[in-house]
Amino acid sequence: MSPLLIVLIIVVILGLIFAVWCFTEPHILDVTNIKLRRSKAPDKTFKALGKGIDSDANSDVRIFFFSDIHAEMCFIKPERILEEIRKANEAKPLDCVIFGGDIVTEPENIAKGIRYFTVIKDGLASLGIPFYGVTGNHDLGITTDQIAECGFINLEGQVIKLKSSGGKDIYLTGADDTGRHSRRWIEPPVVPDGSIGILAIHDPDSILHINNLTDFMLAGHLHGGQMKLPFNLVFKLLRSDELPLQGVLQGVFEYGQTSMFISRGVGCGTLPVRFLTLPEASVVDIYLDNKEDT
Description:
The protein has helices at 3-24, 78-91, 110-127, 144-149, 233-238, and strands spanning 30-37, 46-50, 61-66, 96-99, 131-133, 153-154, 159-163, 169-174, 196-200, 216-219, 251-255, 258-262, 280-287. By secondary structure, it is α/β, with parallel strands linked by helices. The protein has a single domain, classed as Purple Acid Phosphatase, chain A, domain 2 (4-Layer Sandwich).
């Protein structure tokens, strides 16, 4: 057998392994435990914290966060999301569930998104857990009534007071996404002075453009790159997102007085593949008293 043929066979085998990997990853849900503290960063530079702080203490606020369903290209069933919510709630009661936007990829497929979310909203109703969310850039064109059918309270332009299981008053807020092609940055409402705010917003680039930042920010949109290729090629060649070019792609970051978590999301965008970016849903534990890491 010639050396060239051997090399060709190896390339073909590696290509097949790569293809199987890419088509398998979208079916594997990674449920992460994210722990956020109030940021102590002295200036507006990004400090990466992975999954957040290391603490075994009881948190003040406990949220289940998931984003980017893209119902046409989502291989994680809603029943699985609901199962993980139940498990998290049994371990320690959840204060709420928040969705981070992109119900579907194309608005004309909203019926698929509504069916997906109906399973989750009905389950949350039986558990007595509040359900909030925002829309994403792919949700432009979906009507207000259709969003309401998905069952979450839309946080866009609202400030909602929530009494946490830790006994603290917190305020949830959100902002609309205007889409990539006509991008405008909409300011979320201001939470009351001296209060703890949690901002749900689809596109994490917002942190560079809005003034009304809160203590905590939950975002999605980037899918962790979806295909994690060398040299950040996906974002350098195919997208215009700003944060990935600064190394801010997924996980926890502190930026000034804001502690931000960027989820990899659950579904896929245009293609049903992922590489080194497993679908993610997260239990987010929030600590309000600036405890030192343990």
